[in-house]
Amino acid sequence: MTEDARATTVLLVGAMMVRLALTGAYAKYVRTGMGGVLLAAGILLVALGLAGVARALGFVRSRGDAHGHGHGHGDRAGWLLLGPVLALLLVTPPALGSFGVGRSAAVDVSSGGRTFDPLPAGRTVPMTLLEFDERAADHGGASFGATPVRLTGFVTPASDRTGFRIARYQIACCAADAVAAVVRVTGTTGNTPARDQWVTVTGTFQRSADGVPELRATSLGEITAPRDPYE
Amino acid sequence: MPPVPTPASSPEAPPADAAASGRRPRGAGLPLVTALIVAAVVLRPVLTGLLGHPAVANWATVFVAITIQALPFLVLGVAVSASIAAFVPPGLIARLLPKRPALAVPAAAVAGAALPGCECGSVPVAARLVSIGVTPAAALAFLLSAPAINPVVLVSTAVAFPGRPAMVLARFLASLAASVVMGLLWIALGRDDLIKPRRPHDAGDGPRLAVFLSTAQHDFLQAGGFLVIGAGTAATLQTLVPRTIVDSVAGTGPLSLLVLGVLAVVVALCSEADAFVAAGLKQFSLTARLAFLVVGPMVDVKLFALQAGTFGTRFAWRFSLATFAVAVACAGLVGWWLL
């Protein structure tokens, strides 16, 4: 790579990271807490790239620059960094969808063997799919009582006789380590929403014969994908 | 599908470069930006159509996710590496380590605890250590131990395995033991000539800031390029091989250690996150899951690409295979003792 190609590549990668961090689009790929880290790393890379551009243009001259550059070998692999940059600029890969639900490892619902407090009665409790599954695994779902809960997830295909399933991924670091929590929804009328459609369902927990945590729905609404698609 | 931003909506990069490179006829910056714009026009409909296939979309998401997740750690590793090149007097680190390689190896392995990050960051640092004259065995022990025993990784392991502090201790001990064993093995059997020599440019002179900047740029591009290869490989394997395949071989025997060891190589998780996945692999014994946690930070497809790019392919094959065997053995022994 020539000197200004290297500087340009570093600058492009840095700009991509800054943009991902500032627009919040990064939440499709890594966990939300990493925004600040991405921003910091992106700013460092932009600075590094700008310094390289300044040097390539001849604004800055120093003895150390005079030799050792321009040998293409050794950093030829650097061109490959344009791959993810292009992918993000051109198509923006979507958040993980139902394709991987049946293929990922099972979510850990034991929550360290803890016993959940009963849900407060008299109001609808919003809940993650993971917590729903964990509560369902704890003493057969005793902590639910009759309290209605509200879940948000995307529709994932299954061959159930009744109802349909929704899922949502938990990620610890990035989408590569995603595991899905799955809940079956029954009691809805009308057509089942399309695969990968995001929905919000309200209903009550119900024991199922096959062990898949089940929600008996009283209302179902289709929504657009949330900003942070993971739990 | 969310609205797709056009290249022009990334205001920071292309205009600055287009303007910058325009004044310099010989450089590659202008052709690069031109190529990007042409690619945007030509490829976008094709790629958008491809993403209609769920498997392709899954691949693209995992590929981008692994790259994005690893880049901050790579930046940290590159910054440390470039700082050593620019600001640490030559020979200082080699002098700080014990003279005898057999003592330098454990010292370097323990020093790995001081680099908080995942495996991508430790490769450029280890390469830098070799290039400034640290005995390769010690640098390799550092390379293996740093991503596994630093406090961030140990804390995330403790969080992923609530009520099982033995798991944290076992991970620490097995990883440290595997690193030291590999360092000592390298002294006994290794051939330093397998490690690709660094380019003379790395011994750069001149103002320190200039050395820092050019080293950082060089290391970032080299490691980053191979990171992209590794991320692509891991995404391909994750998309083609369903993780549920490991369910069919669940068990407690030595086979399960190997299976989870291979799984760790294939899925190439960040060492700060792998404990959460291991916690979910409930059908396996704790010892088998320990093998997953010990192998993952030391050998995986992403790391292999980074090592091959940094030290050479011949080195990476031998080193990765030996490390895999040693890591599984250490996990088995420590697991049998503690878990």
From TrEMBL, chain A:
InterPro entries named among the record's database cross-references: DUF1980, DUF1980_C
Transmembrane helix is among the record's keywords: yes
Start and end residues of each DUF1980 domain: 144-230
UniProt xrefs under Pfam families: DUF1980_C (PF21537)
Chain ranges passing through the membrane: 37-58, 79-101
NCBIfam families hit by this protein: TIGR03943 family putative permease subunit
Protein name: TIGR03943 family protein
Organism, as annotated: Actinoallomurus spadix
Organismal lineage: Bacteria, Bacillati, Actinomycetota, Actinomycetes, Streptosporangiales
